[in-house]
């Protein structure tokens, strides 16, 4: 089963403030702060943990493509908000992008998520997820402008990212739901409150509903 959580037939619009967006399940996306807060919190903790033990992590010096000379001034939270604000990609792309990053760093332990590479990884993974999920999306030049890097650099990042994942972009509904649940627990641990509404979930294609999980 594949994840199909995108907005079908949507049209990019820079001036969307105040507009209520709905994903394929009917879940309101007018307030994306909950998901972005959970995601940024989780990534911040991963980055902090990795940097505390960076000397113990193996490295081959092959990740320079994603590394800047210094960490960007913008926080992870603000960076995710910026991407969402200007690209209008569906919230499912943020979850799926996180799945891609998690798969990458588990397959390649020499690729720790740290402050000098996390922004480029987030931008690349979300853009790749958008192209895979959303019917309508902006091109690389626009994403590069939003992300604060050159389009040539983003082109190289995209190709490298896809090869590192071996072009395996399919995410099962079970995997997607698992990551959503994980982010919901992140909200609970950070806020200590009850989740009033679940994060956006995926839509299973009708002809896949009866197929067994591969």
UniProtKB/TrEMBL annotation:
Gene Ontology biological-process entries: cell division
Keywords: Cell cycle, Cell division
Molecular function, one GO term: protein kinase binding
Highest taxon above the source species: Eukaryota
InterPro entries assigned: Cyclin-like_sf, Cyclin_PHO80-like
Family classification: Belongs to the cyclin family. Cyclin U/P subfamily.
The protein, known as: Cyclin
Organism this protein belongs to: Ceratopteris richardii
């Amino acid at each position: 089963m594949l994840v199909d959580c995108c907005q079908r037939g949507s049209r990019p619009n820079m001036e969307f403030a105040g507009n209520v967006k709905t994903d394929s399940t009917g879940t309101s996306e007018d307030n994306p702060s909950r998901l972005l807060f959970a995601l940024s919190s989780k990534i911040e903790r991963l980055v902090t943990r990795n940097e505390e033990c960076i000397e113990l992590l193996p490295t081959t010096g092959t990740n320079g493509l994603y590394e800047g000379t210094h960490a960007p001034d913008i926080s992870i939270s603000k960076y995710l908000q910026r991407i969402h604000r200007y690209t209008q990609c569906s919230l499912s792309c943020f979850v799926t992008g996180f799945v891609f990053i998690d798969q990458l760093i588990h397959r390649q332990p020499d690729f720790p998520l740290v402050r000098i590479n996390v922004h480029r990884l987030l931008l690349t993974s979300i853009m790749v997820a958008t192209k895979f999920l959303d019917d309508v999306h902006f091109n690389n030049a626009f994403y590069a402008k939003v992300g604060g890097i050159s389009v040539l650099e983003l082109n190289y990042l995209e190709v490298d990212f896809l090869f590192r994942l071996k072009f395996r972009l399919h995410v099962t509904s079970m995997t997607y739901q698992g990551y959503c649940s994980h982010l919901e627990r992140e909200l609970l641990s950070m806020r200590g409150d009850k989740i009033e509404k679940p994060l956006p979930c995926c839509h299973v294609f009708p002809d896949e509903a009866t197929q067994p999980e591969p």
